[in-house]
Amino acid sequence: MKKYLLLSVMFLMAAFIWSCASSYTEISGTWTKPGYTGKQFKNILVVALSNDIIKRNIVETAVVNELTNLKVKCTASENIVDFSKIEKDKDGKVDTTKRDEIIKKLTDAGYDGAIVLSLLDVKEQTNYVPGQTYYQPSYFGGYGGYYRGFYGYSYNTFGVVSTPGYYVETKNVFMETRLFDIKNDDMLWATKSETLNPSSLKDFSRTLAVALANTLIKDNIIK
User: Which residues are registered as beta bridge partners of 174?
Assistant: First the structure.
């Protein structure tokens, strides 16, 4: 019986550890432009701000796929805008004189909205999960068992199963996402999010995309 109980405890621990390792994105705060009640966009450009093209593509593709599933037309920006070629002034700041040229290029291509995602912070921490002790009567039997009665039971102890404590490492990723009206160069909506313990960049991108897409549609930010 102790063997079966120990196996059950190990199974529960494995399930608990797996659940802790599963990522989850939480929207921690949102802002909406006063008076903005939502809009149906013709085509939204999804932009993940990163110098790493591979990472940028993974994040953008995840968001595009989720919004497309919700009947929102959108496009990853990887092949549309090359941020490495955007001109900068002598102080290293973006050359704002190119603003109208870029906006015209995008609007002429049919883009009227843009979702821009940027990384705010990544925090790692290690948490200790203490061990637990489970117990069972030293005999589980049918009627007539020796330890079942008062006399036999009083002279026997409980069987004990203990599980050791362990450490769990977690990584939380904090992002900011903004929605823009491209033609008017106007910010319509913004949010901060926290993704808890993603196992990979693809896992992070998927859970972030699901949370963002559902929020945008549920709150009528995009119609």
Answer: 121, 194
